[in-house]
Design brief:
The structure holds two protein chains of two kinds. Helix content of chain A is 23%, strand content 38%. Chain A is an alpha+beta fold. Chain A has a single domain, classed as SH3 type barrels. In chain A, strands 3-2-1-4-5 form a five-stranded antiparallel β-sheet, with no helix packed on it. In chain A, a hairpin with a 2-residue loop joins strand 4 and strand 5. Chain A is globular. Chain B folds into two domains: 312 residues, HypD, alpha/beta domain 2 (Rossmann fold), CATH 3.40.50.11740; 61 residues, no CATH class. Chain B is built from 17 helices and eleven strands. The radius of gyration of chain B is 21 Å and the shape is globular. Classes of the chains: A alpha+beta, B alpha/beta. At the A-B interface, strand 5 and helix 1 of A face helix 7, helix 8, helix 10 and helix 13 of B.
Chain lengths: 73, 378
């Protein structure tokens, strides 16, 4: 249940909610826990909330590792 | 941060090397349903050294919820005019008298929601309905419940309340290290839940590490990252160290998400709460503060506590603490299956029993067959 997935903020709702791109789907999420998140930021999504703004540099490093692992494997 | 270009083989090699140097049995535990499923789905358990066991701890929110709390959630669905909103995992958890799913079949209104705010929107849309958000979960999910209460307050709704059974990760780890219902678990290192840690932060583990001298590693969810985390734990055990290592730094900071934590603190206060199979653990959960009593379904509907009467024969209470393996339960795979679950560990998509059922059955069958063949050999 604590599943959370990274997604990029691509738009804003008039209500202030963020619209994120989740594997090609546009999903509205609340940013009440991440008021600092800006357009273009990567955030972690859990049950309709952006629970954390991701450090893009660190995130990219992890994703690069995972991509490399899969290429190797 | 883990080094680039490090295949899982390298992480496993590191783990095997450290385990060999330690040279004795080592029990590690993850405390997160997502870790449980990732490890089983990827076959990680079969790849780790023989003397290292990765136990699945109380990380599945549905599984740790006390039976009495489940019964109360099912009970409130039967109250006239009430609409229960809950997360999908809760629907099929059996209570003493059916489940939320069966209550719906019998005419109760039970809605599955994605976000806690969906329940608030329903209450706003339907002023004649009395909406109860039945919420379980650890710190990852709790801020959402708090945000829902605050949103209901902002909108001035008087037809919204929460029946919250939220738990805290660190007191659970504390309890596992003291003893869980009188039984020592013997766990020497924790792979801490990545997303609960996003909220509580790495510093939250420091008191446990200092008190018990047990290493904690916050890890990501890919099997590669879990293997890295386990290697880091065994290396700490080998060197007699006990510190926090954060292998999920892109999401987890030392202080956690302070905004989310403030949301929790505003609506909830720490309370002694019941866990499945073990009873009350002091200061291990959250209760709605007096100042938000009008949003607390237990107070609004004057609900009595219900005694925990767990299904006969079900050992979920031991399974969630790593004290019993699912196949040690006489119901496992026979009376209790994902299609007709008896305990929550078989219901939940992240329950240990369901993970065993899905991914371990061939191995269990093979082990039993080999055992029988050996027994039959003169």
């Amino acid at each position: 249940m604590c599943l959370a997935v990274p997604a990029k903020i691509v738009d804003r709702e008039p209500s202030g909610d963020a619209v994120v791109d989740l594997h090609g789907n546009r999903v509205s999420v609340s940013t009440v826990m991440t008021p600092e998140a800006q357009m273009g930021d990567w955030v972690l999504i859990h049950a309709g909330f952006a629970i954390q703004r991701l450090d893009e540099r660190e995130a990219k490093e992890t994703w690069d590792v995972l991509r490399d692992l899969r290429t190797v494997g | 941060m883990i080094s680039p270009n490090r295949p899982i083989g390298a992480a496993l090699e590191r783990l095997h090397a450290a385990a060999q140097r330690v040279g004795r049995e080592v029990k590690l535990m993850e405390v997160c349903g997502t870790h449980t499923m990732s490890a089983f789905r990827s076959g990680l358990h079969a790849l780790v050294p023989e003397n290292v066991t990765l136990l699945s701890g109380p990380g599945c929110p549905v599984c740790v919820t006390a039976q009495g709390d489940i019964d109360r959630m099912i009970g409130i669905a039967g109250v006239d005019g009430v609409t229960v909103c809950t997360y999908g995992d809760m629907m099929r958890v059996p209570g003493r008298m059916g489940s939320l799913e069966s209550a719906r079949c019998h005419g109760a209104r039970v809605e599955v929601i994605y976000s806690a705010l969906d329940a608030v929107r329903l209450a706003e849309r339907e002023p004649e309905s009395r909406v109860v958000l039945a919420a379980v979960g650890f710190e990852t999910t709790t801020p959402a419940t708090a945000a829902a209460v605050l949103e209901a307050e902002r909108l001035g709704l008087d037809n919204f309340s929460v029946m919250a059974s939220h738990k805290l990760v660190v007191p659970a780890i504390n309890a596992l290290l003291e003893n869980w219902g009188g039984e020592p678990t013997g766990v020497e290192g924790f792979l801490c839940p990545g997303h609960a840690s996003v909220i509580i932060g790495g510093d939250a583990y420091k008191p446990v590490i200092e008190k018990y001298g047990v290493p904690c590693v916050i890890g990501g969810f890919e099997p590669e990252l879990m293997a890295e985390g386990m290697a880091a734990l065994v290396e700490q055990i080998e060197s007699g160290e006990a510190r926090l290592e954060n292998l999920y730094p892109e999401a987890v900071t030392d202080a956690g998400n302070t905004v989310a934590r403030a949301l929790i603190d505003r609506v909830f206060e720490v309370a002694d709460v019941r866990w499945r199979g073990v009873g009350v653990i002091p200061a291990s959960g959250l209760a709605v503060r007096e100042s938000y009593a009008k949003y607390d379904a237990a107070r609004v509907y004057e609900l009595e506590e219900i005694e925990d009467r767990e299904p006969a024969g079900c050992v979920c209470g031991q399974v969630i603490a790593g004290l019993a393996k699912p196949d040690e339960c006489r119901l496992f795979g026979t009376a209790c299956t994902p299609v007709r679950p008896i305990g929550p560990c078989m219901v939940s998509g992240e329950g240990t029993c369901q993970a065993w059922f899905k991914y371990q059955r061939p191995a269990i069958a093979r082990r039993k067959r080999v055992g029988e063949e050996r027994a039959a050999t003169p």
